[in-house]
Amino acid sequence: MRPLSLKGRVILATTVSMVVFLAFVSVAIIKSYQSATKSTIERNLGSDANELISLLEDTQGTGWLPNELVNPSYNQPLSNNIGLIFDQQGKLIWRSLSSYRYEFKFHPVFYNLNRRFYHEKIEGDGFFVYELSVKLALGDTIKDYTLMTMYQDKDYQRDASQFSTIVLLWMTGGLFLMLLVITWTLRWGFKPLRFLAGELSEMKSGDRGQLSHHYPTEIARITRPLNALLHRERESRERLKNTMGDLAHSLKTPLAAIQASAQSLEVLPDVPKDPLADIIEQAQRMNTTITYQLKRAVVGRQGIAQSRIDPKPMAEKLCRALTKVYAAKDVEMELEVEEGCYFDGDEGDLMEVLGNLLENAFRLCVCQVHVKLAFEGDKKQRQHLLLEVDDDGPGVPEDKRESILQRGVRADSRNPGQGIGLAVVADIVASYHGYLTVGRAEGLGGARFAISLPLGNY
């Protein structure tokens, strides 16, 4: 699973934060609406209870109570408002005309001017109940009464549901609108980074030498030091190249002269043979070490700028040259290159790898060499370049397949060579984060050298 991009992480984090925030705001708004509505209902029911107190006081203790109240909602049979009055024994002594469709089994407790507001279920219907306990002096006596005014909650539930739906719709719409704005803002804000990525790709392919200077301040703090680093890196590579060239010319010529002089003295009859052999051996060893270190010094120093190279012309050129060198063998050469195949890197590195592997194959084969260049893995992604070189020679024993990649180790001591070619190849492959394997060629029966190099991922 691929990790999320920076833009994706910002959008995901923003979305989660906004969803949590808007959910909290939505709940707060809905709860506030419900609380405000309940407070309004409580005030209205309290006002109606006060009317019932006036109704009792107007009777002057006669016991006669009118059926109808000033508030018409209590006088309609199917009204949402209901009024009840209980005496101090808990007996229902009066009820509004709207209450006769229910049977009430309240047993009120007298709280001495206590007020209560709560929600109650009566025969399956929900009611908001305002309960008021009072002491009234009616005539010559003081009596306790419990007054109840109730409001059926069906209108409240409907209105609350509609309000909640409207709030959620507006919040959802607001969320999508804000996400669109944030996405556009991020796209606009990340535009310099996309431009920077494009310039880095151009530098990698060799089409650009340095980054441009038209960047925002925050990104310019990265691009300016990077340009300076690239400049120093190019200068360092150039100095290294010149130094290595100077070193090669300074050391190889005296070493060649020492070797030649020693070999010329070797033919003289009176000169001791053993010291001369030691001198020749040590001079050859020094020459081998210098050659390896010079090649190793430039391996893996490709820098940021890379080129996309077609390996087929290079492979054909090397094969033609080696066919002439080993014309006595009459080598049957087969080159198989997949269409569109390419190499991301330095042309000199590819030449070094192909040259060493092909030279080994031609030198050790009987009469057949097969070279294959193809994409490895998923054809759509094409993430690696596969290079296989097979021959029909004696092959490489399993116990030597690891050691021959080390400096100075050779599998076949009968043929001339210094034993550093495969070590250089291994170093080059490692510098590109690829891998080199040595095995047996299935078709030809000899050795197979297989290299896998990532394309643009090193």
Description:
The protein is an alpha+beta fold and 458 residues long. The protein has helices at residues 6-59, 154-189, 191-204, 217-266, 273-298, 311-325, 347-364, 421-431, and strands at residues 81-86, 92-95, 115-122, 125-138, 141-152, 307-309, 332-337, 343-345, 368-376, 384-391, 435-440, 447-454. The strands form three sheets. A five-stranded antiparallel beta sheet has the order 2-1-5-4-3. A five-stranded mixed beta sheet has the order 7-9-10-12-11, with helices on one face. Strands 6-8 form a two-stranded antiparallel sheet. β1 (81-86) and β2 form a beta hairpin. α4 (217-266) packs antiparallel against α5. The protein starts with 5 loop residues before the first helix and ends with a strand. The model is unreliable at 300-305 and 413-419 (pLDDT under 50).
Low-confidence spans: pLDDT under 50, at least 5 residues? 300-305, 413-419
Class by SSE composition:
alpha+beta
> What overall form do the CA principal axes indicate?
rod-shaped
Strand share of the residues? Answer: 15-25%
Q: Report the C-alpha radius of gyration, rounded.
A: 48 Å
Distance between the termini: 20 Å
| Number of distinct beta strands | 12
Order of helices and strands: HEEEEEHHHHEHEEHEEHEE
Spatial order of strands in the largest sheet: 2-1-5-4-3
Residues in helices, as a percent range: 40-55%
Mean pLDDT: 80
